[in-house]
Design goal:
- This protein is about 25% helix and about 30% strand.
- Strands 1, 2, 3, 4, 5, 6, 7, 8, 9, 10, 11, 12 and 13 form a 13-stranded mixed sheet that branches.
Length: about 325
């Protein structure tokens, strides 16, 4: 035996023999020594296994989901890449081609009016004599509510557009003048009977233009990108297109948001080659559709006590 426990047993045995004590059972003592040796080796093995278990348990805790209570999130090591294989990466997004007419026209054509919204449009009048207007339009009905100031008093007009029994487009016009406390009503029809669905754009010439109509207007080959101004916090693309509308020449400037490609501003320039150029500017804001707002746009409100008068020309 060569272990420290066996050497200790030998020393004890010699002392016992020298004192003249009874001869011990040497086989029993040796068996006990071997048992103690095996026990010590087993304990050392258990200790090593225990340390390894703690290390494994620590690794599991380190990679536990960050949402587990009582554990701090620890990032996992980067995945190894097989020899000859490139590490995977997300390709960078293609930058917008805001100076490319075809690219911008394609995205404008794919844009839609914001869902579940109505549009508030602030329009400057044509020429210096016409006051600015605020026009609310419900795209679901093409009805409008127009407010402006005339002679120092507020005027509001509700324009209700619909098809009559002969499928002719009609517009009922209800106007309330809050200064003299008067109101008037008139109705107009526009042209011959139509086929298909009712128009979604107002037919009375006010500058609200749906996204589908903008797509058609920009389908002309003379569209050009002429700038990238910031308008009301929107980074825009300015497009210019010349059109012949209503028997007269007209140049339109469309300012579309550079991310959503929705219309932010429209400038219509009439008679661009004349000395007295007239223009109209309309700024668009889309507002969340609510029952109260749509009721206000679609249903005229005549205050009590107002007097009906003949409609203006």
């Amino acid at each position: 035996m060569s272990s420290p426990e066996e050497a200790q047993l030998r020393d004890d045995l010699r002392r016992i023999v020298q004192t003249g004590a009874l001869a011990p059972d040497l086989e029993t003592i040796e068996r006990r020594g071997r048992h103690e040796q095996r026990r010590a080796v087993a304990l050392r093995g258990l200790a090593i296994v225990g340390v390894a278990g703690i290390a494994v348990g620590g690794s599991v805790a380190a990679f536990r989901h960050s949402g587990t209570p009582g554990t701090a999130p620890v990032a996992a090591p980067p995945a190894k890449t097989a020899p000859g294989q490139r590490p995977s990466s997300t390709a960078p997004a293609t930058p917008p081609q805001l100076d490319n007419v075809a690219y911008v026209r394609q995205h404008v054509g794919a844009a839609r009016n914001p869902a579940n919204s109505v549009v508030e449009m602030k329009a400057s009048g044509i020429g210096a004599g016409n006051p600015p207007e605020t026009v609310w339009t419900d795209p679901a009905t093409a009805n409008q509510m127009i407010s402006w100031v005339s002679g120092g008093s507020k005027v509001t007009t509700w324009q209700h557009q619909y098809l009559d029994s002969h499928r002719v487009i009609n517009v009922d016009d209800t106007q309330v003048n809050y200064g003299p406390r008067t109101w008037s009503y008139r109705t107009q029809n526009y042209g011959s009977p139509i086929t298909g669905a009712a128009p979604t754009a107002p037919v009375n010439g006010v500058s609200y233009i749906p996204a589908a109509t903008i797509k058609t207007m920009l389908a002309h080959g003379n569209v050009k990108i002429v700038g990238h101004p910031v308008i009301e916090g929107h980074h825009t693309v300015e497009l210019r297109v010349s059109l012949g509308l209503h028997g007269r020449a007209e140049t339109n400037y469309f300012y579309v948001d550079s991310q959503t490609f929705q219309l932010v501003r429209l400038v219509r320039v009439f008679f661009p080659n004349s000395a007295q150029t007239a223009s109209e500017t309309s700024d668009y804001t889309w507002v969340q559709r609510t029952p109260a707002l749509t009721k206000l746009i679609n249903h005229p409100h005549i205050p009590a006590g107002f007097t009906e008068v003949p409609p203006d020309n």
